[in-house]
Specification:
Blueprint: E1 5-8, H1 12-23, E2 28-31, E3 44-46, E4 49-51, H2 63-74, E5 78-81, E6 85-89, E7 92-95, E8 102-105, H3 110-117, E9 122-123, E10 128-133, E11 138-142, E12 147-151, E13 153-156, H4 160-166, H5 171-178, E14 182-192, E15 202-205, E16 210-215, E17 227-233, H6 235-240, H7 246-261, E18 270-281, E19 290-292, E20 297-299, H8 309-327
């Protein structure tokens, strides 16, 4: 009997690979250092309702992803998001001409990963620190010193800097992952009572500590008890203030928000900050996925492609395809 396949990481790339392998009749076991699935598509429950602090929305351009998103829509996992979109640049704050179709998970971004995970076997709060090859199969070791296995193949679906060490058994793969630079992002949520008097529901921002802001209640299915906003700092600002205390990050980005929004901004009734250390790859790649098929070691993630949500899903599909192709 063939040993199962281990997948490290339950973000969209890992879940995409898991879905394909499971549909092909393969046994998979998933591992994630967090308490829940989703990675940067996870949502955080708070006193102001559920908040999408990572990926704010996603687009679908590749026909394969368009098709699967339509299936997700039919199942109620996602909905179109058409906010009053603005942009702030040297000409000031003005409506954006961008007519891109945007999608969000409903009633929160994490609805997608939860649905994809389904009843697949998963070990949460389990940080894998080592992937090593036995005589015939793979073994995993976690941060508590526990061993997991045996596994016939391993798919590493974590951000590139975390994947590098886990790919040490395949130096070429590890080297490729090590070459990827990933940018950080500070995310801040601010809730106001009463609601801010502004038509803005989302905006791209230039020339500020911020590069994005979104009104949570403008997304389908969201809790509207508070007027809650999610702010994303720019990569450069986040890198420069990587170790700033959360209270100071909130204060500074609150100030930047006040400069952008163009209306009276009271003190928030609720606030929180989250640091995404590996928010997005600094540049796109065309690997699809990394593979040493003879060893049975693979890696996937948005960093193998475009850096977008779509790229994560496509990369997971590619990793699964290469694994299945090798077994035929």
């Amino acid at each position: 009997m063939t040993a199962p396949i281990a997948i490290i990481g339950t973000g969209l790339a890992g879940l995409s690979a898991a879905q394909s392998l499971h549909a092909a009749g393969m046994d998979v076991q998933l591992f994630d250092k967090s308490r829940g699935s989703g990675g940067r598509m996870a949502s955080k429950r708070s006193d102001a309702g559920s908040l999408d602090l990572g990926a704010q929305y996603f687009t679908a351009r590749d026909r394969r992803f368009v098709d699967v998103v339509q299936q997700w829509q039919a199942r109620g996992w996602v909905a179109e998001w058409d906010p009053q979109l603005y942009q702030l640049n040297q000409n000031g704050l003005q409506p954006s001409p961008d007519e891109q179709l945007r999608w969000v998970g409903t009633p929160r971004m994490s609805a997608i990963s939860r649905a994809l995970l389904g009843a697949l076997p998963v070990h949460f709060s389990c940080r894998i620190t080592e992937v090593f090859r036995g005589e015939q199969n793979w073994q995993l070791q976690d941060a508590e010193g526990q061993s997991h296995g045996p596994f016939s193949s391993v798919i590493v679906a974590t951000p590139a800097p975390q994947a590098t060490g886990l790919l040490s058994a395949a130096p070429k793969l590890a080297s490729a992952a090590a070459s990827v630079i990933m940018d950080p992002t500070w995310a801040v949520a601010l809730a106001f009572e009463p609601a801010l008097e502004t038509p803005v529901e989302a905006s791209f921002v230039q020339g500020s500590a911020l590069d994005w802001l979104a009104r949570n209640r403008s997304k389908p299915g969201r809790d509207a008890r508070y007027d809650t906003w999610v702010l994303h700092a720019s990569s450069s600002w986040s890198r420069q203030h990587l170790d700033l205390p959360k209270e100071d990050v909130i204060e500074r980005l609150h100030g930047a928000f006040a400069e952008v929004i163009g209306c009276a901004l009271p003190a928030p009734s609720f606030s929180l900050a989250h640091r995404w250390l590996y928010a997005r790859p600094a540049s796109a790649h065309e690997w699809g996925a990394l593979a040493d098929a003879d060893l049975g070691l693979y890696a996937c993630g948005d960093w193998c492609l475009s850096g977008r949500v779509e790229g994560a899903w496509l990369s997971g599909q590619e990793a699964a395809r290469r694994l299945l192709e090798h077994r035929q």
